[in-house]
């Protein structure tokens, strides 16, 4: 078992490490900017944003190191960019192999389709785990280096709880990967879907009577600002995300088991 | 139990019929050539046999496993090798990594032995491979777990003639050690050299499944004779068909016995004679409703009609005005 995970993860390893270094450096770069913000009137800076924007990026508490990190690093890099990235990877997981005729050879091996799909999904967890192991170290180091301090538990939780969120984004991509034949279409659809869900959550939060719509977005169940600024850890949200991930992977598996490959 | 058993197999894609009501079986230890032009349904059939496509109607079994039962087919796949027509490998890994990967799932007891015959550059990334090297890597992965049945889709495409010969020799040796080989091709000469039996697929239906020799016999020998003088009545011998004259040369197909033919020819002043087996292309054309003019070679006589007449250009060429 797990030979497919091993092979796929190994293929991604270089890219994953490069991304970890890049994102770590970017996070440190953001943190290094924080002291120069100290002179700025952050209250009015936050006020200057339109309400929807403030909601989307949790801008209220940007004057503190926690609020600053939550907005600049986590809402932006983690929730939005990384969410899009793993959805894109997920969307390529099946469709690219089918498109490039690699799936034929893989399925000529004595492996079930659900195993192929499941292991390919597990392989997506590798970049997610590696990034969440490496980047918090960089952030913590950076915060100390600029003479600030941050609760290590909250920092760990903001990464730990991002894992179910990112898995859910990857699973959205994976489902699209089994629904759409062309890999580039699946990938664009996945980017569009995750971005649209992000917008739905942020906009509905400021629209009266429509808050519930935001509940369909994975971003509703992972809030870096709440974790870092308020120290509240939404474990229930993580459970919802893991449940949704499982459901999406099961749907993808049902779809993939029935599909004609490369027809 | 047959190695492959296909009954009334139909596969349609919406309105398009891939194969229709196809039935055949391939015995254990047999080398079966699956012939047909591109688009006849060869690849569709193979993909159904591997469980990549599900049949619309009918049934198929490989090594006793129903292709619609995933768990049965997985068991069978431990003993099946597959060489697809379009080999999809990850471009940015080495050939060795691919073989290691497949070996980790399916085994590779014969890898070393195969690498003595086929020699792709294992330590280079596959993106650098020539098509011949890709094909060799494909052959190695298809055989390295010592399968009982190997299914190959156009296996010699991309191999140079020398490698092709080596490959044919290899397939014959595989048959001798009891491996069943099923391969599709549109190159008849290659099938002729290695197959025990062939099936010809035409528009999704199998037209013939018989041994190569009887196919060839049925087509008759090809006789070419050059004689001094007119040679009138040269083709008037029992068993001769499709008689024609090209310049000094008389040609016909002959399905009778040699004695009669030689006695008949002895009455002429024979300058040159050649009696050859028919190219399978001719046999093939027979099944595709090929007409009398299916002569595959030396028919430069047809070229005369068109000679000297270049096709009319759609517009005046290079008239000198360059207003662009």
Automatic annotation (TrEMBL), chain A:
Q: Which UniProt keywords apply?
A: Membrane, Transmembrane, Transmembrane helix
Q: Name one Pfam family in it.
A: ABC2_membrane_2
Q: Does the keyword Membrane apply?
A: yes
Where, by residue number, does the polypeptide cross the bilayer?
A: 12-34, 76-95, 121-144, 156-177, 189-207, 235-254
A single Gene Ontology CC term? plasma membrane
Keyword Membrane, does the record have it? yes
PANTHER family from the xrefs?
Answer: ABC TRANSPORTER PERMEASE, HYPOTHETICAL MEMBRANE PROTEIN, CONSERVED
Q: This protein is called what?
A: ABC transporter permease
UniProtKB/TrEMBL annotation, chain B:
Record Pfam families: ABC_tran
Q: Which InterPro entries match?
A: AAA+_ATPase, ABC_transporter-like_ATP-bd, ABC_transporter-like_CS, ABC_transporter_ATP-binding, P-loop_NTPase
Q: Which residues form a coiled coil?
A: none
**What are the ABC transporter domain coordinates in residue numbering?**
4-228
An MF annotation (GO) of this entry: ATP binding
Q: Which UniProt keywords apply?
A: ATP-binding, Nucleotide-binding, Transport
**Sequence segments annotated as region (Disordered):** 286-324
Record field: compositional bias (Acidic residues): 292-305
Q: Which family does it belong to?
A: Belongs to the ABC transporter superfamily.
Q: What is this protein called?
A: ABC transporter ATP-binding protein
